[in-house]
Structure formats: C-alpha cells, structure tokens
Design a protein that fits this description.
Blueprint: H1 16-24, E1 46-50, E2 117-121, H2 139-149
Antiparallel strand pairs: 1-2
C-alpha cells in the first residue's frame, strides 16, 4: 500500500467481494402504483364528458349527436367531433373508412362515428355555508363588525 499514489478507500480495489457487495446494494424495481384505488380527498376530481369541438360546451351523456350544438350551432355528427379522428392517420381516421371525408367539420353519416370524450377538472365548487347578512345595513353595524374583529 505504500507504493500507491492515492490512499483513498476504493482506489485500485476491485476485489470480487466488493463487486458482489455493490451488486447487492442496487435498488430493486418498485411495484407499480394502483391508480384504480380510491382518490385522496384533496386530489382534483375529474369529469369525463363529451364537449363541442368548436365552443367546448359540455354536453350531457344522453345528447343526440345527429343535431347541432345548442350554443354555436355547428354540426356535431362530424369528423372533428369523432373519437377516431386523427390528423396524422391515413385519411385522417383511425378506422378503415372507404373514402376520405373532405370537410371534417360538416355533418356526415359515418357508421364508425363515436363522440369524442374529454377528461377535465371538476370546476364545480364545494357547497359553502350560506351567508344571509352579506353587507352591514347601517354605519353602526359596520363599526360594530370592525370592532368585533379586534375584541379580546
């Protein structure tokens, strides 16, 4: 050991026992998390619902897609509203269609049509307690409310 330039532990020490010890210390693969389990109370809840491709109006699940959007009046039984619409796919559809549909935002009678469903955060707020007395009616009420803030 006297002829070595560095005396640090591990320098020029590649013995078989140390190699095996390092192999044993390697972290093992973690088990996958179960995403189907119950959500924690503070996690953001999601809403799965069809939306209009043009104005993003949330449509009810039992909505008739053969008509138009109630808000912007665009046709909903069209390629842009379909779950199989993919601009990078052949003829811009994931299903084996016979001929390409030129106008993707016009109504058509495709037998493969399935409404596109989006996942979004639930924006409905939790029920808050009802406050009946929002503003003080007289200046004395306002002064009393202010003084009650600093009461000991």
């Amino acid at each position: 050991m006297g002829d070595r330039k560095y005396r640090h532990r591990g320098y020029m020490e590649d013995s078989e026992t140390e190699y095996r010890a390092r192999e044993e210390r390697k972290p093992r693969a973690k088990l996958p998390l179960d995403v189907t389990g119950p959500r924690l109370p503070r996690m953001v809840q999601t809403v799965v619902a069809p939306r209009c491709y043009n104005c993003a109006l949330t449509l009810p699940e039992s909505f008739d897609f053969s008509g138009n959007c109630p808000r912007c009046q665009v046709a909903l039984h069209c390629c842009k509203q379909c779950a199989y619409f993919e601009p990078s796919a052949r003829m811009q559809c994931l299903k084996p269609i016979r001929e390409r549909v030129a106008a993707k935002d016009k109504a058509n009678n495709c037998e493969w049509f399935s409404p596109r469903v989006t996942v979004a955060r639930d924006t409905s707020s939790a029920a808050s307690p009802v406050v009946t007395n929002l503003a003080p009616r007289t200046p004395e009420d306002a002064r009393a409310a202010f003084d009650s803030l600093f009461k000991k």
